[in-house]
Amino acid sequence: MVVGVTLALIAAVGYGLSSVMQALGARQAARENSADHRMSTATGAPSLRSTAATAMTGVFIVGAIFDVLGFIAGAGAARMLPLFLSQTIVAGNLVITAVLGIRLLGIRLHTRDWVAIGTVLAALLILGAASRPHTAGATPRSLHWALLIATVVLVGLSIYGVRRMGPAGSVAAGAAAGLLFGAVAIGVRVLDGIDPFSLPVMLADPAAWVIAIAGASGFYLHTVALQLGAVNGSTAALVVGETAAPGIVGVMWLGDSTVPGLEWMALAGFTFAVLGAVAVALFGSAEAERSADENLAPAPELDDSFTVPADCSSLEHQPESRTGPAWWVDSLSERLHWR
Fold this sequence. Notes:
Keywords: Membrane, Transmembrane, Transmembrane helix. By secondary structure, the protein is an all-alpha fold.
């Protein structure tokens, strides 16, 4: 169980770093293509061209690498722990996103945000204390097919709905991405052909296609959510989706359970963890408009007429402060701007 918890923590760090890096990529791409009308649809939602431009920025690619790290670690945790525990620990990526967002994205957190984040962390500790290791068991093939059908329907409805909602669809896109990532976790948990390993058996399992479809679609919708703004809000909505649904499925159909006599503690921990994430989502919704405006704001032009004085040590030419959030964004984006 210790190994599973460690993997879940690694996944949380990877996903948290990924969210911030991908948000930086979305801002960079929006600034560079602010004059291109093809970057958005008639409703104001990002076009496929816009999403592709975002995905090609260097800083976004680095975020994608952290995404892969998070997925691998999360997959291992999902096989070793009850889903209500593994997915809730992974929800800790919200803390990483929020803290790094202060420095790199210029996001301002208030007391209520910190209280909500603290609630999530405390609830995780309670939930972990009440959980017991997962014991593997066979699952009916009908459950695999039902998961695949539900995934395809969710993908279609989510993409259609987000494109119709336009700029207001940031949190909705994050929630849809979360549900799809939750489907990935369930698919990893029930996937056949792992032990003993058999590639033909694995590829013949509908759960394998759930992992591929839900993973790719969730990644796309998460990218759209970050393009639309509300980094903390959309990430929190994602956390709720990828935590609540797999937790419920695990308890009802996959045999996940708690330490005997501590069911109430597990329920309390899970409930407060989800409610804490919802609170951060609601508080972060007010930040959506400001983040979206920053995405579309053109980068400031440099004054090329400045001449370095002969005496660089002169007190009349003190160096400009380089500690503000904007510098971190521009500097990191420039270093990772691969063309």
